[in-house]
Design goal:
The structure is a single chain. The chain is of the alpha/beta class and 476 residues long. The protein folds into two domains: 5-354, no CATH class; 373-475. Helices cover 64% and strands 6% of the residues. It is built from 22 helices and five strands. It has a five-stranded mixed β-sheet with strand order 2-1-3-5-4. α5 runs antiparallel to α6. The longest helix has 24 residues, at 5-28. The radius of gyration is 25 Å and the shape is globular.
Amino acid sequence: MKLNPGRQCVTVYVSLAAALIFGSYLRLRNITVDSLWLDEVFSLATSHPDNSLLEVCQRTLVDVHPPAYQIVLWVFYKLFGFSEWGGRYLSVVFGVFLIAAVFCLGKQLFNCRAGLISAWLAAINFYLITYSQETRSYELLALLTTVSFIAFVKAVRTRDRFHIAIYSLVATLLVNTHYFGFLVVAAQAFLVVCTLLERPLDRRLLYRFGLAGSFILLSVAPYVSYVYFNFHRQGFWLAPPNDRFFIELFNLYFGNFTLSVIYAVLVVVGATRLIKEERNREALRLFVFWIVACAIIPYVRSLYIQPVLTMRSSIVLLPALLVTIAYAISLIDDRWTQLGIAVIVLCFSMTPLFTDNKPIFTYANQLKPVSQMRDLVHEFIVRQIQEPLYARQAIEFNQYFKLLGSPKNVRNEDMLNKDLLSTHPPETFYFLASRIAPLDVKTFLSRYHIQLLSETEVGDSLALEFRSLPLEAEKK
């Protein structure tokens, strides 16, 4: 028995609403359990509402990233108030919008069924949930990547000014959010070139997308020197990817090895069907260019020129994979088989969310670490430490003291060097650090006339207490 169109439409949007509600629950669950970590506190300090827009842009560009996300966060704080957890809630909003965006992309390329399955896969995805609970730009990057492809496909199909203008605006936001946004736009540019080459010259398409590309490039003109510097940056912490990079990344996307195997099979099934069917040529070409531009290009550059590829930046690939998997599942006509797959996927997707069997932070995967930075700062406030505090990440520690209502000032390493070399060095002092950016204690001790008195470790954060030695004691 077939549903009539009206009833079918209601069923579709009820199911989508359910995916949005369940996805919101998973993203809000335990969102304040873990302390902010260094990168998140940097985002707060950079986008503090007391900073000017120019300061927000300069601090972001000097760090490494384009400024769009930090500007959005700054506006959010201006409108809704500055708070410790506010930035994470903004990422939740991006994550919920991403569920709807993936639905639209699946529906646009295939059909409603594929769109709904895509939405549910996004709603329960470990990786997307993880970055929906972090005050960083990666969830916005995934959202803008997906929306840019939706706008791009619509613009290519219609070729009208309105949809090309919408695409231009979304793509502009994308390249100004993260440098991997340039790879996404490059994939779309290659697709336009292919469209132009396979048929008689379409002057309207060439002219309008040429203007769109010019607009996108002009948006980065004010800080093109920073872009050039970051593209040629040397001595950064990134290492070249190993030969298992994409295997480990695929497993990380889903947080569970068994689920990754199931999804890998479904990706093969979906890709095979896309290759065989002529009507899916548009979707096949889009996914191929998406993956080549956003995976192969940075991989080759990282191996032979300069490391730029990270697992968290590769979040731009995940929507393409989810839609491909959803398409493969939608090909199954038997309702009971679909239900069985849904139960299996749901069970294994919940494993990393509700148990301790989940990926943890490493320097390779760059997942959000379980941070106790807040606990360390709170302990110092409670103990009413009067000795001077120093830190390599002084901006971040200062911000956390302010968040918890303390006027305590944390000085940076340059000030520490100046104070220790002065005629009146601090008698005792503390150096605050994180395991993510540890202090080389042996080198530190050999450089100055100091002695390590104690070490307090709280999770991934630590405080080292030092005492300055008299010159006589050092000579002895």
